[in-house]
């Protein structure tokens, strides 16, 4: 057994303990960040006069060779490789000889793993941001395609007031804008360099921490070495951002599962995004949407599980922290699939105007009649009550609200003028809601422009950093 820390031990590690302890099975995906961090560390050791220029170059060339082996799938993980840090150092030393042993001067795997994980997470956030922007663009195109197409709006899943398809589609756009902001927050939380914290107390060598941080693309350095080796707030923030993003995707999925059912029939999912049944030939199952809805559960689980891992830890590094990586990697992998699937599904979604129109029944216009009475000077509560009577009358007569005569209405209240029926159209109901954020055509045009701008502004924000 040739462990990094084997010097003071007489007996080899129990085989099961070795497996229990090892993280190489999942932290191998940090190889690129680990090597990038080590290349910068070698340069910092030279700056601090701890390595000659030739030693630094030997180490950096060796590290790049290890990186190339990983990239080409040629790196062989050995049974004794405990984690990515020990595997890289073991291979480096095989390549460059004993000078490889100088790389770990003044650092610890504790500040090293925090560095690697932060660098990885910064990249992960940027990647998900691009996928989120794609989904936002798909929703914008979908909204534009039927911007002012009327549809029933719902509260409590009951007919409420008319809205438009574009308004509905954009309602699922804005949560994603907030998700992007939250992911950007996690990325900023990660962009702080722990290098130089050592194992817990700080490094005893004159490393220029600021310069090293800047070299790696960090924006600041950690202020306390004990905190630095155990701060995983950035991971928890990432898991919250991904959990809430999962919730948003789940709600969109749930809505489309309902809308694509025979009962609603508002949309048809493209063949490419549905699956069949092995027994019922007529079935077109929205499996992709159901999986998206289902996977939000594991995203929430990763957040709560990880917070539970953190809550009992005393200050500084504890091995529990090794549990940080799997939930974060899985949250990333889950969304890395779910986001492009959802984008493709939205881009190929067929809207069925005739089915939307069939649901535009007169009950959706009851509020218009109440608003009409308010414009005649009645208190809203009284107006609401009078319209309630009109609704009841229409039910008693088994006719639509819009089929009541002017005489029927005037019998309920003399405030109903001959023009009362004019407000009882879907177009009038939509046009009336012209405040910013409302469903009227002019307000929607503004909202659409704001959405387009929001996608590009957030993207530009990422590209500039
Ligand atoms: N594999 C460890 C982790 O993921 C690396 C740090 C280990 N440090 C230590 N002193 N055992 O957290």
From TrEMBL:
Q: Where is the Argininosuccinate lyase C-terminal domain?
A: 364-430
Q: Name the domain of life.
A: Bacteria
Q: What is its main location?
A: cytoplasm
Swiss-Prot/TrEMBL catalytic activity: 2-(N(omega)-L-arginino)succinate = fumarate + L-arginine
Query: One GO BP annotation here?
Result: L-arginine biosynthetic process via ornithine
- Which Gene Ontology cellular component annotation is one that this UniProt entry carries? cytosol
Keyword list, A-Z: Amino-acid biosynthesis, Arginine biosynthesis, Cytoplasm, Lyase
In the record, what terms sit under GO molecular function?
argininosuccinate lyase activity
Compartments reported by the entry? Cytoplasm
Q: Which family does it belong to?
A: Belongs to the lyase 1 family. Argininosuccinate lyase subfamily.
Name of the protein? Argininosuccinate lyase
Q: Which organism is it from?
A: Candidatus Promineifilum breve
Give the encoding gene's name.
argH
């Amino acid at each position: 057994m040739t462990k990094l820390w084997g010097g003071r031990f007489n007996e080899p590690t129990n085989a099961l303990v070795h497996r229990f302890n090892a993280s190489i099975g999942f932290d191998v995906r940090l190889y690129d960040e680990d090597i990038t961090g080590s290349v910068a560390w070698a340069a910092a050791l030279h700056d601090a006069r701890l390595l000659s220029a030739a030693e630094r170059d030997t180490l950096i060339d060796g590290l790049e060779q290890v990186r190339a082996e990983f990239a080409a799938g040629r790196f062989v993980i050995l049974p004794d490789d405990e984690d990515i840090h020990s595997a890289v150092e073991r291979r480096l030393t095989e390549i460059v000889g004993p000078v490889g042993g100088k790389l770990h001067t003044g650092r610890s795997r504790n500040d090293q793993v925090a560095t690697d994980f932060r660098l990885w997470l910064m990249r992960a956030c940027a990647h998900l941001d691009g996928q989120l922007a794609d989904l936002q663009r798909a929703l914008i195109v979908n909204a534009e395609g039927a911007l002012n197409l009327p549809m029933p709006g719902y509260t409590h899943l009951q007919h409420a007031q008319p809205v438009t398809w574009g308004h509905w589609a954009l309602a699922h756009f804005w949560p994603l804008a907030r998700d992007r902001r939250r992911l950007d927050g996690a990325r900023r939380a990660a962009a702080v360099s722990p290098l130089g914290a050592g194992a817990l107390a700080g490094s005893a060598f004159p490393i220029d921490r600021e310069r090293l941080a800047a070299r790696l693309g960090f924006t600041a350095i950690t202020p306390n070495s004990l905190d630095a080796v155990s701060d995983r707030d950035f991971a928890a923030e990432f898991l919250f951002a991904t959990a809430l993003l999962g919730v948003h995707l789940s709600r969109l999925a749930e809505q489309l599962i309902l809308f694509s059912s025979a009962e609603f029939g508002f949309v048809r999912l493209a063949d490419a995004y549905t699956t069949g049944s092995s027994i019922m030939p007529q079935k077109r199952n929205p499996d992709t949407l159901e999986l998206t809805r289902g996977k939000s559960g594991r995203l929430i689980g990763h957040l709560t599980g990880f917070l539970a891992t953190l809550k009992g830890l005393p200050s500084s590094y504890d091995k529990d922290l090794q549990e940080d990586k799997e939930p974060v990697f899985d949250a990333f992998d889950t969304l890395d699939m779910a986001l492009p699937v959802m984008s493709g599904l939205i881009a190929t979604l067929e809207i069925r105007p005739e089915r939307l129109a069939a649901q535009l029944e007169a009950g959706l216009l009851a509020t218009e009649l109440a608003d009409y009475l308010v414009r005649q000077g009645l208190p809203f509560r009284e107006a609401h009550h009078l319209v309630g009577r009109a609704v009841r009358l229409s039910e008693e007569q088994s006719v639509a609200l819009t089929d009541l005569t002017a005489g029927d209405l005037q019998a309920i209240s003399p405030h109903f003028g001959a023009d009362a029926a004019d407000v009882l159209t879907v177009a009038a109901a939509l046009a009336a809601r012209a405040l910013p954020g409302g469903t009227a055509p002019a307000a929607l045009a503004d909202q659409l422009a704001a959405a387009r701008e929001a996608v590009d502004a957030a993207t530009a924000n990422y590209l500039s950093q």
